[in-house]
Design goal:
By secondary structure, the protein is an alpha/beta fold. It folds into 2 domains: 58 residues, no CATH class; 235 residues, Aldolase class I (TIM Barrel). The protein contains 12 helices and 15 strands. The strands form 2 sheets. It has a 13-stranded mixed beta sheet with strand order 3-4-5-6-7-8-9-10-11-12-13-14-15. The protein has a two-stranded antiparallel sheet with strand order 1-2. α6 runs parallel beside α9. It is globular. Bound molecules: iron/sulfur cluster. The site of iron/sulfur cluster has 8 residues, from loops. Iron/sulfur cluster (SF4) binds next to loops.
Length: 395
């Protein structure tokens, strides 16, 4: 199969004229793009079909909400097409196109006509990476790097591989979901990636499957080709209203991914981006969906962490109690925040960190002392005084 790209709703015959007319205002603001392959996966008898919701515009997108760049990526842009927020990791915007436009995309600003964040020439970006020996990871994203021609992608990865300190190259992609035939019809793509994925320095495919129905036979075969060529793979997904905001659906996705050797990695809180109100799930609800899904899987299916890509860093949502929610910085550009643990009063309507207000309690990693053995403890063990007294959990 050779999928074709659909960028006009007139070419989606399953939509009525009325539906197309209602969506005109949305398309004036946000791009639409899909493959006929992906559209063929939709159950057109179900108006709430999750894949339909993921790819077809919704009139609710015109509701004012959010920002163009909610994680303030512009503040960390150090060269055209290059963001450097966390010491070891640089993010290279290598492509302006994706094989489809996810409606909830948090980088949809890139698809706006006048946006020039993705440069034609990455020379300055390569020079910056070369000069920063702390960069051991480069994440290529965009836009989708696998939509570049194999020759162009080969050229970019070759340049990165010339830089001794760059060890891991990650390729963020939804091509295996939107158009697995990009991989299946061009064997030179997997071969080229395999060539650069050496035992010492791997290429990681960071796939973006949101729903288990995206894991079709061709999608699984595409992932298998990439893995068989020598790459490694993990999966990321946000929790999106109407797509995967259901513990059973998410559990099924985690399970299937672990079965095919693509363990779940990050699960994201939906960023408060333009037009995304309809797709966002409040943090506490999303956390409970995530935990319930994880509880249903085996160890490999529950490797994911639920995180929020906030302007101040990547924040993991680690738990909820009856009154509080517990968050921890996973990464931060600010050294003081690294490992910081925070306790907030619960707010079931919070969509982003600021919605919780000030922390009730917090602990900076640097301020935490490692407890010393009390004087009355004998390290040899013969006179060991239990401290604290043992607690027997009720069974
Ligand atoms: S694949 Fe990623 S960058 Fe592309 S439209 Fe979807 S969310 Fe946005």
């Amino acid at each position: 199969m050779q999928p074709t790209y659909v960028t006009r709703l007139e070419n989606v015959p399953q939509l009525s004229r009325d539906e197309r007319n209602q969506l005109k205002a949305v398309l004036e603001r946000f791009a639409f793009r899909a493959t006929d392959y992906y559209l063929s996966l939709i159950d057109w008898n179900d108006p709430a079909d999750p894949l339909r919701r993921l790819i077809l515009p919704s009139v609710d997108e015109i509701e004012p909400w959010g920002e163009a760049d909610p994680s303030h990526e512009a503040d960390f842009t150090v060269a055209p097409g290059l963001e450097h927020k966390y010491g070891p990791t640089a993010l290279l915007l290598a492509s302006r196109v994706c094989a489809g436009c996810c409606r909830y995309c948090f980088r949809k600003r890139i698809f706006v006509n006048e946006n020039a964040e993705v440069p034609g020439d990455l020379g300055v970006a390569f020079a910056y990476i070369r000069e920063h020996a702390e960069i051991t990871n480069v994440l290529m994203t965009g836009g989708d790097p696998l939509l570049l021609s194999t020759a162009k992608l080969d050229g970019i990865i070759s340049e990165l591989r010339k830089i001794e300190h760059v060890q891991i190259i990650r390729i963020g992609t939804k091509v295996p979901a939107f158009n697995p035939f990009r991989v299946l019809n061009d064997p030179t793509l997997a071969d080229m990636l395999g060539k650069f994925s050496t035992p010492e320095k791997r290429i990681y495919i960071v796939s973006h499957f949101d729903h288990p129905r995206e894991l079709t036979d061709p999608a699984i075969e595409a992932m298998n080709r990439l893995l068989a060529a020598g790459t490694r793979a993990v999966n990321q997904t946000p929790i999106i209203r109407g797509v995967n905001d259901d513990a059973d659906v998410l559990a099924e996705l985690f399970k299937k991914l672990s079965f095919i050797g693509v363990p779940p990695y990050y699960v994201f809180q939906c960023r408060p981006t333009w037009g995304n109100k309809t797709y966002a799930v409040p943090i506490e609800e999303a956390y409970l969906i995530f935990e319930r899904a994880r509880a249903k899987g085996s160890g490999l299916a529950k490797r994911a962490r639920f995180v929020m890509s906030h302007a101040t860093g990547k924040i993991e949502i680690i738990g909820i109690s009856s009154k509080h929610i517990y968050l921890k910085y996973h990464s931060s550009p600010h050294p003081r925040h690294k490992g910081r643990f925070m306790v907030f009063c619960r707010n079931p309507e919070a969509f982003w960190l600021e919605d919780f207000g000030a922390p009730e309690d917090d602990l900076f990693l640097d301020d935490m002392a490692i407890p010393e053995l009390p004087d009355d403890m004998d390290p040899e063990g013969s006179q060991l005084t239990p401290y604290p007294p043992p607690f027997v959990w009720p069974l």
